[in-house]
Fold each of these.
Amino acid sequence: MWLDHLAVERGASAHTLSNYRRDAARYLGWLAEAGISDLGEVDASHLEAYVADLRRGERPLASSSAARALVVARGLHKFAAAEGVVGSDVSAAVAPPGAGEKLPETLSVAEVERLIEACPTQTPTQLRDRALVETLYATGARVTEALDITVDDVSGGEDVITVTGKGDKQRIVPLGSHARAAIDAYLVRGRPALASGASHALFLNKRGTALSRQSAWTVVKGAAQRAGIDKDISPHTLRHSFATHLLEGGADVRTVQELLGHSSVTTTQIYTHVTAENLREVWKTAHPRA
């Protein structure tokens, strides 16, 4: 009756009705296995348990699919209450599962090395591009933070750099020997050929002004194409990779939080999910009883 109501009163498409019919059958089957044959016997805890089972079963559903399954179950209960079949709609207070956080795209260590090696160092702009990619990965800086670095910030030859983040909050981040060498090479053989104005920015374009965010994206995407990396990456991918590789190497979350400039460790913990996914995949591949 409910599906007929959707078709006639709501004008639901055949595709939608097919999906809802499947979800309704799954829900009623779950109730039957729980020993419930009447919607009037269902309370909110049953619906919550149903959604939980969908998310953690042998073939767990994505949160979006589980949310749709709950929409169908709630539709059944709402229709039953409206038709007087049950006394009240017990599903109204049951919230759909959270959408969950999308795990960021990352590169493996080998892919990062290929990306960097795909930046030649023959011309001034090539030296700049190599220094930019090395800096993004070495520091985990946001692209805007990297583009705000000035010559004075790196002219002392130190192996650390002060990065200015959101809200003008500053943090000290190790630069690393490879990034330091790339920056030094760019300062000696690259930047002087590009500098034609008064800009103090470290990374310059051919006009002698600060490199734009869009140009930085072009640099990274061009290097990825030359390296044969078919992932959809951006400068931010290097930030994600920086954090993931640190955690995989044994760094604690609080340290990575400080290096990334996150105000809350909760933001940083997304990267622990990434490393957990990596561990799970390795386990599935290597464990004899996976």
Amino acid sequence: MNEKSYTELMKKNAMKKKKLKESYVLDLYIDMLLSEVLLTSEKKKLLKEIDHAIDEGNKNKFNHLSKQYIELTKRFGT
């Protein structure tokens, strides 16, 4: 029989908890990175469309896209 001591079990449990915390933090960083990439991409896309609406002289499209851009920046606090 391979019985482990109380100390070994406590160490193993502590390491398991540490790995779970590290995994959670890593997942959080990945989520933040993906959110930043998506936000940056969406902002660039909207700015390009806004510039195009200005070039066309399309005031309605400009106003609509500008409102979307403002909402996007409010939502992400940027």
Amino acid sequence: MTTTATGFAQLTGTYTLDPAHTRIGFVARHAMVTKVRGAFNEFEGTAVLDGENPAASTAAVTIKTASIDTRNAQRDEHLRSNDFLAMETYPEITFTSTAIRQTGTTDFEVTGDLTIKGVTNSVTVPFTYEGAATDPFGNVRVGFEGSVTINRKDYGVTWNAALETGGVLVSDKIVLEFEVSAVKNA
């Protein structure tokens, strides 16, 4: 089954994120000259897709902050600490949709409440529907990709260090990246 952009009706149902084929990542500027990329390796999420009325769809994701991975153990420990994500006090980052709007043939805006370190703000993530297929095991899969830039200070993540040359060690703006593969529940 391959679904064209106009064939959303057949996708109606409840889906579970497939962590083995989904990436929830981020990008931050480091020392104002390069980018550090990372991801969260442990998360769970569901989406209820309404193919006839996309605005009636919903999505929710829970991310384990301890699963942060930037491929550098020392940096990851610092990110888990009270300087950044304070994982002991705030073990989860959550996102719960509040509105979904179709903006183009395969484009959607998913607005929701993003909670980091106990602070909740509304964010709108533009997503592109990448398609649907039935995998070799008979599961219906859908794919979506999106990204949004947030200011980490809006969530109380304020630690930084000044550079001798001016500027700071860690950018305030963080790009959140979502490459989602979800499997339709039986």
